[in-house]
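As the next step, I selected for study a record pairing a protein sequence with its backbone structure tokens, which the following lines show:
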Amino acid sequence: MRRFEVIEQAIATKWGDDPAVRVCHAIIEHVVSKASTPKLMLTYSDLLKITGLSFDEDSLQQAVTILTTRFKALKLRLLYIDPCGELFYLDEEEQSEFLESGVLSHPSSGEIVEAPEEHTYPYYIACPPALVEEVGH
């Protein structure tokens, strides 16, 4: 059995007919369809498109939570856009520090960013090859 099949089966068993199950399935199927891509970046808008906008936002948020926290099929990452419009993909240490303290140092200058929550944007990383690998079950 491949990892994504184990994940889908576990989700269906735990959450049954909850609409989030179908959202998880749509996201996983999309990621698996990109199996030749080592890493796949997905924004919230991408996730809305993948699910066909046929689910409410609560179901999408629940699905993302399931896939990021419980099964690690998606990894939450943050993008910081500074006042000059320059993009900075926060590394894991910068992201952890920001999420724990609420304080963000500008990745280039080191200055403390005012109202960092207004300038950071979530995105998700998926590793399609990891989801299609065979696992013992």
